[in-house]
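(Protein data)
===
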Amino acid sequence: KEDGKAIPMNADSIREAGAALGSFHAKSAPALLTPNDERSWNNRNAMLERRTRSATVWRGPHSADTQGTITHRNFSHSVCTIVDGSIRIGGCFGGVRDALLPENSPFPAIRDVGAAYASMLGKDPDLRKSFYEGWISTAPAHWHSSKAVDTHRGGVMIWEYEQILQHRLFNQAWGRSEPEYVTRWLAGVSGIQNGMYQARILAVAGLICFAIIPTAALYWIFYPGSPSPTISDIGAMGALGACGYVLRKMYRASAPNPW
């Protein structure tokens, strides 16, 4: 064990901690890489919700870019120390907590990012962005692709949710009072989900725009007696395609930031 000093809670140090975690993940990828296992990951959330008797439900489809690998499993900013001027990550070991919640399927790297966010609740919110910027600077690119971190698919936020449920479970197991940040975070889940649900209206509208174009083309080609499309008709189809593209972009942009 190396003795080091705690990292300062400032943007530069937290960014370096994120970069150190990303380097750890970059070295983990060649050793273990498994496909998206959304069923196991969602079952874990269901189990945590049931054990903690939480009035929340959150499942995510996750993307193909969200792959299982070797993760820290107990990450927080507090396990990062400065040794000889560089960030070292400690605390990567099992224990009672891992025995209570064993790993049934390799987790994705963004779970450690969610754990970092959960450990910084109550701190300066801008530190989350600094940590994320550090992490993406060294982590494999596809693990922080737009699909992997899209909150509509789960992203980092669903793993922060999983970590908060764990905090609740551990406090219940030790007979401790629940920290305010746990109660407050879980109370805000319905608001997050309502916002994403409303954003799906944009996605549906975009799909309708895209669907009209091939439907109209099939009508003009195959329907007996259908008139030939005019320049105005073709222009209208182009406008619908543009509207569909803009609506889909708006839908993606409406997702919460990955930090």
Summary: The first strand starts at residue 5 and ends at 6. Strands lie at 5-6, 80-83, 86-89. The mean pLDDT is 90. The chain is about 55% helix and 5% strand.
